Amino acid sequence: MVDDIEVVVSHSERTTLRIGDMFLKVDADAERLEAEAKAMARAPIPTPLILWQQRSVLALAALPGRPLGRLGEPSTQSATAWEATGAAIRKLHDAPLPPWVGQGAEEIAAKLDEECDWLVSNGLLPGGVVKRSRRVAAAALRPWTPAFIHGDLQIAHVFIDENDQVAGVLDWSEAAQGDALYDIATLTLGHPEHLDDLIAGYGSSVDVDVIRGWWSVRSLLAARWLIEHGFDPDAPGCEFDVLRSQG
């Protein structure tokens, strides 16, 4: 008997299917999929077991536990789980650098200006909100010491086991050398109430203005892609709410 096939996420770039306890990731960019597999092999924290791999398909074993949370919804995980996540991310950031270099501050700033113009010209957000958010974003665009970052560390990509420990981290396609605070900001996007717990587990102080800056950067840059791929950045608690709250 064949298990039912569940479409987890699907858009023009990638599709993820679940078949029983196996996930199939189909990626139009075979090199990106190969880089994801290599990043998981390098990561010093739990990742999904790779069952098999073809040029454009990666088969992964399902992780145990439950997601740390989801954007737009309250996280029901404990402070201990958030602290454990912080400790795991610190271990990743302290690991030897991968060979892939992520975007630099100047490149991000140029894209940011383009996306801000697009948001205003299409009437998606008031000009005042966009201008203020761009000003907040400037704090993140400073020189940083490169770290091994996940690069897309959304709250739904971290799974927590029954002991409030990290069971595994998903979706490593954006892993590269980058700013460690970007990962921390991505994890707490829309969940600022858990930032202190995450930092407690991380084990060192962080510049909260930079975290806020990355919240703005990610929200501003993601909007067009989300809209064009059928997602809604204006859903409650999501990217546009984050930008509106940055007053």
TrEMBL record:
UniProt domain Aminoglycoside phosphotransferase: residue ranges: 16-203
Alphabetical list of PANTHER family matching this protein: AMINOGLYCOSIDE PHOSPHOTRANSFERASE DOMAIN-CONTAINING PROTEIN-RELATED, AMINOGLYCOSIDE PHOSPHOTRANSFERASE-RELATED-RELATED
Parts forming coiled coils: none
InterPro entries documented for this protein: AGP_Transferase, Aminoglycoside_PTrfase, Kinase-like_dom_sf
Protein name: Phosphotransferase family protein
